[in-house]
């Protein structure tokens, strides 16, 4: 090998590269077209691989979609759990921490635009998707994030900062009052809703949550 030249990749390394290229291309196409309308031929062209290579790696479109959901959702869940830990671990000012978390939770996450476009397709077309694909998304993402939030709320309750006899239900209420409520407003409003308004909506949700869960 010449000095300064790149090392040759092993066959295993090339397989990994192709798999990653297929996953990235699939996320782009599924996010744009949705599961039903996306075609294997289109994904193969986007990934610059043959359809045979794609089928060799993933078997069929459903298994490919499941792999895309699993990997993309896991990355987003890790980022959201990091938000939970940063804002809620070991805090004393619970109101300030929950508000900061709620406002950041509803803000766009750089680098995950395609993932959230994919999620919108899943939510809109869920009844037309194989049930196991929706289950994969829920378990890899929303349920995992809710479990992490539940754990932090339980810690705050143990420290006397909240009344949360059922932390999982409290986590569900928190998410419904913040991210779900803010998202509904953005989708249902007749006029464009800016990020400051969405974050204010989330903050109001946090205050409603605290009215129910703050210590007496």
Structural features, described:
The mean pLDDT is 88. Helix 1 packs across helix 2 (40-47) and helix 4 runs parallel beside helix 8 (142-158). The protein starts with 10 loop residues before the first helix and ends with a helix. It is mainly alpha-helical and 216 residues long. The protein contains ten helices and no strands. The protein has a domain at 65-213: Tetracycline Repressor, domain 2 (Orthogonal Bundle), CATH 1.10.357.10. It comes from Amycolatopsis xylanica.
Instruction: Name the CATH architecture of the domain at 65-213.
Output: Orthogonal Bundle
Low-confidence segments: none
Q: Characterize the main sheet.
A: none
Which CATH class of the domain at 65-213 is shown?
Mainly Alpha
What is the count of helical runs? Answer: 10
Topology pattern, helix = H, strand = E: HHHHHHHHHH
The total of beta strands comes to 0
* CATH homology-level superfamily of the domain at 65-213: Tetracycline Repressor, domain 2
From the N-terminal CA to the C-terminal CA, the straight-line distance is 73 Å
User: pLDDT average, as an integer?
Assistant: 88
Strand content: under 5%
Task: Kindly identify the CATH topology of the domain at 65-213.
Answer: Tetracycline Repressor, domain 2
Radius of gyration over alpha carbons?
21 Å
Which structural class best describes the helix and strand composition? mainly alpha
* Shape field: elongated
Instruction: Bin the helical content.
Output: over 70%
InterPro entries: DNA-bd_HTH_TetR-type_CS (IPR023772), Homeodomain-like_sf (IPR009057), HTH-type_TetR-like_transc_reg (IPR050109), HTH_TetR (IPR001647), TetR_C_Proteobacteria (IPR039536)
Keywords: DNA-binding, Transcription, Transcription regulation
Organism: Amycolatopsis xylanica
Protein name: AefR-like transcriptional repressor, C-terminal region
């Amino acid at each position: 090998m010449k000095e300064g030249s790149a090392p040759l990749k092993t066959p295993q390394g090339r397989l990994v590269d192709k798999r990653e290229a297929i996953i990235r291309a699939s996320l782009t196409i599924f996010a744009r077209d949705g599961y039903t309308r996306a075609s294997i031929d289109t994904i193969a062209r986007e990934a610059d691989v043959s359809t045979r290579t794609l089928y060799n790696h993933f078997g069929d479109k459903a298994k490919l979609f499941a792999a895309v959901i699993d990997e993309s959702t896991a990355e987003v869940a890790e980022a959201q759990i990091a938000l939970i830990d940063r804002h809620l671990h070991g805090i004393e000012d619970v109101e300030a921490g929950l508000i900061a978390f709620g406002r950041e939770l509803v803000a766009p996450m750089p680098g995950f635009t395609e993932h959230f476009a994919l999620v919108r397709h899943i939510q809109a077309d869920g009844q037309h998707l194989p049930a196991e694909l929706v289950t994969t998304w829920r378990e890899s993402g929303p349920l995992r994030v809710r479990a992490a939030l539940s754990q932090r709320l339980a810690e705050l309750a143990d420290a006397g900062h909240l009344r949360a006899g059922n932390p999982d239900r409290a986590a569900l209420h928190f998410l419904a009052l913040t991210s779900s409520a803010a998202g509904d407003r953005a989708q249902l409003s007749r006029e464009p809703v800016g990020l400051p308004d969405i974050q204010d909506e989330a903050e109001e949700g946090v205050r409603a949550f605290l009215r129910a869960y703050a210590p007496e």
